[in-house]
Amino acid sequence: MIHNTPNAAPSIAAQLASFAHDLEPGMLPAAVVERAKLLMLDALGIALASSQQDFAHCAYRGLQALGGAGDSAVMGAFAPLLLRDAVLMNGILVHGLDFDDTHPGAITHPSASAFPLALGLAAQRHATGAEMIAAYVLAIEVAARLGAAARGGFHDVGFHPTGLVGAFGCTLAAGKLMGLDRIGLEHAQGVVLSMASGSMEFLSDGAWTKRMHPGWAGVCGLTATALAGAGFRGPSQPYEGRFGLYASHLAARGLQADLSQCTRGLGERWEVLDVAVKLYPTCHFTHASIDAALALRAAGLRAEEVASVQVLLPQGVHPVVCEPVAAKRRPANVYESQFSIHHLVALALLRGELGLTELDAVNLSDPRVQALADRIEHVADPEADYPAFFSGELRVRTHDGRELRWRESAHRGAPGRPITGADIEIKFMRNALLALPRDQALRWRDAVLAADRIKDAATLARTLTQSNTSGAP
């Protein structure tokens, strides 16, 4: 049954609006601020790595042709765009390599929408760095709770929650930066209900559309907030209403949603602290299995010894990374391979590491990778604690009759198995050096890590771009 807020209590939108309206930078615990800066640094590094890819240049050309030049920074060596176009473009860059952070309980990538929105709008309005961070944290807190309330249901029916719930988080963050009152913040959430979207159909052929979902969430947030700020009215119950988010997007599964999670622990429990940083540029559902494969490889297992592999994963992730089996064993392109448990486990066992370098066309068509992928099968993990954790277990049978097992109940970087701030800085540098000289990468790192002390977010935004008047390189 739906666990709704009692009729006498304020609506979910009203409660979220009050939290957003009252939130001030000084209310954020020091640990939340430090975590936020590290997550933003991680997002920036991925954006820089993405800026070297074809999809990034295609997206930039399209947006520049649509809106022309603007004054909002685009990360990397791109000229500024109009604010909404820059938010969309930066979201594409952060999410483009599927290397960005994840909130496991919500199964959403929060920074890919929250950071572009907060950076772009805070810079336009000359907010302080601390105010920008508060807006960024607000977007994550809201999106994480809204996603967690669905209990994995959005994925089940083909909606990508990153774009879906991210739009609501971005709306409240934008409203905070624009100075909307509580009523305006309520209406903005109602308005964005008619905009929030994100289809999982990209899984069918490795299409590029998933990459735009977080940035589009930011665009929706900006647009809904601007309309509401001008007096445009939205539905009062965008979440629990008869045709609200959960009823309309989950249909019968909406009865299983726990709407109390939408507002539980606001201002007391900070979801940003549970956001997991990726160590592999692949779907987060695959990470524990990759960890297990690399551990077996480090323990001495060699791919040529493998007769068969059984991969145990939560049943709920099978449609995303395991099925249809024939397509997963022969991904059509590199992007599709990032959502293939068969290809990724084979690659990890063969190469002994899995980074951006290993995800290329050569490995995609390597007969050894394909032959090993053919010997990999997937089954449901009866011990999985999904969606709280994305577990993975490998059961390997060798040609000489040995049986080897390795289980990871949670991947590295997940809540309970966090990586350190130093690890995140190392990841940033590796990604940033694909696009920047080392001295510039270090300056950008230091600027983000000092963001809470910046008097004008526009200064930070200008720092994080190599823009010139000639446009994209």
From TrEMBL:
Pfam short name (any one): MmgE_PrpD_N
UniProt domain MmgE/PrpD C-terminal: residue ranges: 280-450
Entry similarity comment: Belongs to the PrpD family.
Domain MmgE/PrpD N-terminal stretches: 15-252
Protein name: MmgE/PrpD family protein
InterPro entries (UniProt xref): MmgE/PrpD_sf, MmgE/PrpD_sf_1, MmgE/PrpD_sf_2, MmgE_PrpD, MmgE_PrpD_C, MmgE_PrpD_N
Species: Hydrogenophaga pseudoflava (Pseudomonas carboxydoflava)
Sections of the chain in a coiled coil: none
Top-level lineage group: Bacteria
Molecular function terms from GO: lyase activity
Lineage: Bacteria, Pseudomonadati, Pseudomonadota, Betaproteobacteria, Burkholderiales
